[in-house]
Amino acid sequence: MNRRAAVWILGTVVAAAGVAGGIRKFGFTPEQKAFYANERTLNFVRPGLVLRVLGAEIAADGTISTTFRITDPMGVPLDREGRVTPGAVALSFVAATIPQDQKHYTSYTTRVQRSPITGVSATQAAADTGGTYTVLGDGEYRYTFRTRAPGGFDRTATHTIGIYSNRNLNEFELGVSYASATFNFVPAGGAVTKVRDVVKTATCNACHTQVSAHGGSRRGVEMCVLCHSPQTVDPDTGNTVDMTVMTHKIHMGKELPSVRAGGKYSIIGNGQRETDYSHVGFPANNRNCAACHVQEGPNAATQAMAMYQPTRMACGSCHDDIDFAAGKGHPVQLDDSRCAQCHRPSGQREWDLSIDGAHTRPEKSQNLKGIAIEIIEVRDTNPGQQPSVSYRLKDSDGNALTPLELTSLSFVLAGQRTDGPAKPGRDRYPPIHPRDSGGGDGIVFDYRGGLSERDVRRSGAAAGDGAGSAEKRDEVLQCGRESGGTAAGDCEPDQVQRLP
Ligand code: HEC
Ligand code: HEC
Ligand code: HEC
Ligand code: HEC
Ligand code: HEC
Q1: Number of compact structural domains in the chain
Q2: Does this model's pTM top 0.90?
């Protein structure tokens, strides 16, 4: 059997088994190349990369240095240059600080990016270049940055070293292993008391498997925020790549007011490559802040505070049709000092001005009345007959509704064919629209299907084995602010919200 065939068969078996449970081989998952390698190669190469920052300091003259250790997953030290152990390890270093009076990072390591489109130059957070390595022991190194901390830097502020790295094992057909690590310290000594911990990497990874970017080696939100702060702007589009604004906008995607109005949201990054996020649909619903802002663990209180601090930047990222300075879409706000007076964390009512209230999801609402449909009887279901349905409509309080109060009402009849094997898409009746919604006594309504006799005969409907269902969608006028009423007339015009 040639090698490719062997791999293919293994791949098939693994794919099938992988579905059943998180299968691993030598600690590797079926998504990793090493999973498919033979044992001898694995024992020799030991793919994978573990990176730990051991310490960092900044000398009085601003010289920044950090010590770190690189090993394989078994803890065996790696040679950075790949001469003694398989695969060279490439490393990049970022040094950044959170100024005392601010909550975002400013990176000391930067580069200047000039846009060939706009001619604008921007100083962007970036990795250091041209620093020097000292070998301290097996797998242990010191890196001294070429970049120095600026004169008069605050020795008492939180500083962070970020390292992102990769171990190139392509020579052994084992792909590239990646690792990132960060290290917080206070140059003057003492404990780190201020950190930036707004969202957790694990929360993102619920959807992303592994949040990474720029080819894979930059991993984890702690790493992203060192560079993705208000400091860094894309000079081609003029968009900030601040983590808050960028993440909110990427996931709003096609729902961004600016995109809905015909615009696009994109960033032109490495090699002038444009990435357009205008198509992105967020599977979790953009009002669901908790999809990313999970508040638990040791920093839960800080995380909650962060999410509930309204600013023009954070709120204006999704609500990008507001011009706070010009008073477009919102009364004029020249700074962020008053936002929290009106937009509190949570309020009394759904759809009030509070941050929780404003983002109530309609399907989670306690106030929307909803609809309950009860199918009482389905008649005339023999081959050749036109089925008819008796049904009752109520809201969730038990009040009777009439079909005329609904925006739409559709019936679907599904059943097994009796004249042959079921074929996908053919054993389902076409949806029928309420052409003949009848009166009844105001509670029970009759509906006669619009199926032709031929349709019914062709699908071989047999009494008893079909299932009927009705689906309905309503559009509710909800006055969410003051009265909580459901009729448009109860509300001030600007308080009426139309919900799907
Ligand atoms: C509920 C699922 C979900 C969660 C949670 C989520 N994302 Fe995403 N994310 C998506 C989807 C869907 C896309 C669009 C993918 C596409 O269209 O290629 C996306 C795209 C992205 C992109 C741009 C495309 C890329 O892969 O480079 C980045 C960056 C990103 N997300 C970062 C994050 C970060 C950081 C978090 C946590 C704060 C997060 N995401 C949480 C679903 C999610
Ligand atoms: C060393 C600094 C640095 C780190 C660390 C970093 N980025 Fe970036 N990133 C940038 C810069 C600078 C740009 C903007 C490039 C431009 O527009 O000119 C950028 C652009 C992007 C873009 C826009 C599309 C693209 O690829 O150009 C996305 C998405 C992105 N970063 C996601 C992330 C995520 C997610 C992380 C963390 C896992 C991260 N970045 C870590 C510096 C960094
Ligand atoms: C797709 C993930 C995602 C969703 C959904 C999301 N956020 Fe965020 N949010 C982020 C990320 C990432 C940051 C920046 C984290 C960082 O810089 O450390 C952020 C930052 C913020 C900040 C700024 C915090 C600070 O201290 O700077 C506020 C305020 C905020 N979000 C509010 C909201 C609200 C309100 C919602 C829901 C309507 C929401 N977010 C939904 C990912 C998300
Ligand atoms: C992740 C994106 C996101 C962020 C961040 C966000 N919102 Fe929203 N917000 C939405 C969505 C989606 C809606 C639903 C209405 C819509 O489609 O415009 C909404 C609705 C609202 C409404 C109700 C608007 C109306 O027309 O009734 C208010 C008020 C509001 N947001 C305030 C805020 C404030 C204050 C912040 C900052 C703390 C914020 N939002 C941050 C996505 C966001
Ligand atoms: C005096 C009270 C008040 C202050 C102060 C205030 N807002 Fe508002 N905000 C409102 C009202 C009222 C609405 C309209 C709600 C609606 O349309 O349903 C609103 C709506 C919003 C919306 C949603 C707009 C939409 O419909 O898409 C956002 C986002 C928002 N405010 C952010 C902010 C931010 C950020 C600040 C501070 C810079 C701020 N607000 C200050 C009262 C206030």
Answers
A1: 3
A2: no
